[in-house]
Amino acid sequence: MPKREADRAARLREQIEVHNRRYHVEDAPIISDAEFDALMAELQTLEAEYPSLVTPDSPTQRVGGEPLAAFPRAEHSVAMLSLDNARGEDDLAEWVARVRRGLDDPDALAFVTELKIDGLSLSLTYEDGVFVRGATRGDGRVGEDVTANLKTIAEIPLRLAGSQPQPRLTVRGEVYMTRSGFQRLNAERESSDEPLFANPRNAGAGSVRQLDPKVTARRPLHFFAYTVLGAEGIATQSEALEQLADWGFPINTEWRRHTTLDQLTAYCEGWHEKRDDLDYEIDGVVIKVDSLEQQADLGSTTKHPRWAVAFKFPAAEALSVVKKIMITVGRTGKLTPTAVLEPVQIGGTVVQMAGLHNADEVARKDVRIGDTVVVARGGDVIPQIVRVVPEKRPRGTKPFRWPTKCPTCGTKVVRLEGEVAHRCPNASCPSQLRERILHWGGRGAMDVDGLGVMLAQQLVNEGLVHDLADLYELDRETLASLDRMADVSASNLIAALKRSKTRGFRHALFGLGIRFVGGSVADVLARAFDSIDDLMGADRDSLEAIDGIGPVVAESVTSFFDRPENRRVVERLVDHGVDFTRSQEPELAGPLAGVTVVLTGSLDGFSRSEAKAAIEARGGRVTSSVSGKTSYLVAGSEPGTKLARARELGVEVLDESAFRALLGEDAG
Ligand code: IVH
User: Any idea what the Cα angle at residue 503 is, between residues 500 and 509, rounded to 5°?
Assistant: First the structure.
């Protein structure tokens, strides 16, 4: 192979990694996305022509290769221990005293505190600076080799930056999913009728342990490094963190160095209060002796190091009693069990219901009516039942009997092959119909104001609506005669329905509620076809030929339109004037058109998503990193590194009242 090409490929790899790090880790890109894509495309072309140029650290290897049958075993050369817990200040004081007793020179003692990220711990091996293997913790001695999956995580360097390190290094850290990424992922899964993840931790762990790296690649995963083994010239944990950052790893910048117990307690208490402000979940604080020499002197037990401890926040858990187990029927007929509980306070909110997922879960946990259960609240999903407290089970309870008939329409329920869920197969089941109406009128779909649960239920119960097209045949008089509906609300609903007709192809397609057709799939389809007629005429092969459409979606779409009743509803919707044709993307309009805003820190009057929505509603754009193209940085309290970056680039920084002024609201 010609030397010129080999040199060029090496140079491209280097450049791409630098820009990748600037974008994903340092949050400070210096080239545009298009320029980045061009570098990547050039490297891909070179590698395709000369396959021997493909190296394990080539950025092209991040995309994800072939699925695996199972993960190979990965033995840890240094065991991945767990941490002993300190619950509360007394425990912490005791641990500090123990550390002091264990040292010859306790006066020279300093600590590093770090946030305890609630993710999945990983061990990464670098040989001559190149990432060669990544493994999960497993039982601490042997984990699973998930290298191919980890290569898809942009924040994990494939090659270390800066000074040439030792021939072999091990870096440990935590892979996690942000709360916002988790919510987007779950929203997407919900709209395509896939099972939801219970919390960001499970979603993150599940994503890393995917046999198909392409699936991992699509998940919003992040990484924080916190330990390096085998590095020379590092004497303290503080230096280790700085070195890790220099090598290009993301480190959590909230770490601090302390010398007194009071400082440790203040840090722990402070984060206990502030934990909800973070976009990732933490379950405590890790306190480490700073000096590596002192760490070695203190040593480890078989389970935990003596030089570190986890200060655990009190768990957001409580006991309650199961009053009943309710089964609801979803839009696609899926039966979902929910436990109705005696109301109980958990971490500041009153909880009365807890999710149970499916029949298998109810059986596995053996949850019975009358049982006392441990309930946990995490993230934003509905609280979960952790386990039953068997000692408190009243006499005479029986295992929960899963219904064989749909609780709404009485049709015999089915369980399709390969599915955990039971379904009601009756497409005109009133519960399904109500949910379909709500979905059609929902936010990402037709956005029909005033079409809520009560109304949808009445429309079904009164026999006024049998399918989505019937909605457009409702008249004002009929609506006004319904419970809780006055003339005004009836007119408003008619007007909202009328407006919905022009929402556009993508929204209408999503609104139909076809399984696996969530918002983004609907978007892909609406761009690929001129009209719903064309889409209804497409066969599986032509659907699968579309970038972004796989066999599962293709199958689901064709079988939906194979049913004459579905085609009829669509045809009637079209007759009523619902727009099912491709449109040009509307130009962004509004006072903030062309304005790009980055948000950092927390605002008093807005959550992140509210601030984002307010900007987008005015035609502005919100991006995650500050660059030369950023118009404003909105900085709330405790801004991150973005603030320094904005100042460096001369980007205008707005505080909350200036932000309100930008939105055209009164400050204050
Ligand atoms: S240090 C000897 N630092 O907590 C163990 N761990 O039970 C050294 N974790 O399995 C671990 N954030 O998954 C350390 N900043 C942090 C951490 C952290 C989260 C996790 C890690 C470990 C568990 C300890």
Answer: 100
User: Is the distance from the beta carbon of residue 81 to the nearest atom of ligand 1 less than 6 Å?
Assistant: yes
Q: Cα(293) to centroid of ligand 1, in Å?
A: 20
What's the per-residue H, E or C state across 524-571? Answer: HHHHHCCEHHHHHHCCHHHHHCCCCCCHHHHHHHHHHHHCHHHHHHHH
* Residue 516 within a domain: yes
Catalytic residues: 116
| Rg value, the chain, Cα | 28
Instruction: Evaluate: CB of 85 within 6 angstroms of ligand 1.
Output: no
Domain of residue 539, CATH code: 1.10.150.20
Show the DSSP H helices in 221-260 as ranges. Answer: 237-246
Q: In this structure, are 126 and 55 located in the same domain?
A: no
341 part of a folded domain: yes
C-alpha–C-alpha distance, residues 27 and 627, integer Å: 9
**Looking at the structure, do residues 56 and 22 belong to the same domain, yes or no?**
yes
Compute CA 372 distance to the chain's CA centroid, rounded to the nearest angstrom. Answer: 31
Q: Is residue 448 part of a domain?
A: yes
- pTM equals 0.60
- Residue 18 shares a structural domain with residue 148: no
Q: Are residues 164 and 264 in the same domain?
A: yes
**486 alpha carbon – ligand 1 mean position (Å):** 59
Q: Give 253-272 pLDDT, tens digit per residue.
A: 999 999 999 999 999 999 98
| Residues 236, 105 within the same domain | yes
Render pLDDT for 35-48 as a digit per residue (tens, 0 to 9).
888 888 889 888 88
Mutate to test the pocket of ligand 1, among 170, 226, 249, 298 (most ligand atoms within 8 A of CB): 226
Q: Are residues 301 and 331 in the same domain?
A: no
- Residue 225: how many other CB atoms lie within 10 Å: 25
Q: Is the domain of 135 the same as that of 247? A: yes
Centroid of ligand 1 to alpha carbon of 122 (angstroms): 10
Stretch 104-132: mean pLDDT:
94
